[in-house]
Amino acid sequence: MLKQFAPAAIAAAFFLSYGSPVFAADHRDAPTIDEYSAIDINDVFMFRDPACTNANCTSQNLVVALSTQAVADPLFGSSYHFQENALYRLNFTTNQGAWSTAHIDFVFSPFGNGPDCPSPQPACQTYKAIFPNHGVISGVATQGTAGGTHNPPVVETAGDFKVFAGPREDPFFFDLVGFNRTIGSNPTQISFTGVDAFKGKNVNAIVVEFPVNWVFPQKTCAGGTTPVFSTPCGVWAATYLGYLPPVDDNFDPRPDDDGLRQIDRMGNPAVNTALIPAAFKDAFNFGEPRTDARDFGQLILNQIAALDAKFCPLHPADCKNPNPNIPLLASVAVPDILRFASKQPDGYPNGRQLADRTTDILISLILEDPGFTDGTSAKTYCSMFPFLGPPLQLSGATPFEVNPQSCP
Prior knowledge:
By secondary structure, the protein is an alpha+beta fold.
């Protein structure tokens, strides 16, 4: 439902301190966020539609997806909702200092009956998506179901803008058990088996599509590849908890001033779960990319060196000291934003497509192990908005089995 929208808008490597078990991407990455699964950021994805495969891309639209509610079980599909009195924010930057130059906010109502779903209709949850210049799209979140078939995605559209909020299959794939066993082994041995720990799980997802120039103006984000991949532009997600006033045309909460407490943030996959020691994980989630180099840069370098030293004996021919991949890793992870270069093809580290093998890339760089793969397979995704695969459902009869679903 379109409540109000600005006229101009309508016109226009999963690593923890080794020896401890980890959750992958950004799933349950710190003590505090374990208490707030509905605002625990799992992954952030960013790609163009249609996808850009070369430097002469002409795609005009950008897709950004944020997933929360880690490893949601299809058995309880109707019980997962977005957090009320929370702010879900996508921050965009076009400067080297990683200050937010634009943001898109999402707020959700309590789950229940109301004007959009009066009793005796089933309860629902509504949202507002607030874009730069205070354009607002209002809609109803797609609800999970215990049935054998998923509810069709409810997509709100206003001109070139699309918004979706609701359950989808977890797009992430990784052999987490194999990784934990490898990290914990002494003497070190490779224990990957190709079994995806996130197979059969769902997430709650927020997906938006809008014109690229809305957040990344022309000629500001060309980027380059020498000496390493670099661009001043990027995105990161953050979630906040606290009291939210009613949303109006001037809605633009300032978390520090408005009593909102930042609970989680994420740009790249695996930075907090991988490269931040356990004692600093909450501090990292409460921080901002603009201070990452000062506050966490040395910690990240130390962690890379420790992992490198642990695994180098397994492939001494490939190991060099210092690790020649450190400049590339540092350019991607510090500050922790998912980067965007308009003149480069889509694919991590230039954004992140759903099927990108990000863990393989990061592990191969950190461990100096070219061609590394954990052996898992990508999920099935959709060719149309909201692109993430539909949520998995249980079969209609016992013994219950997880039923793959058809897009959308």
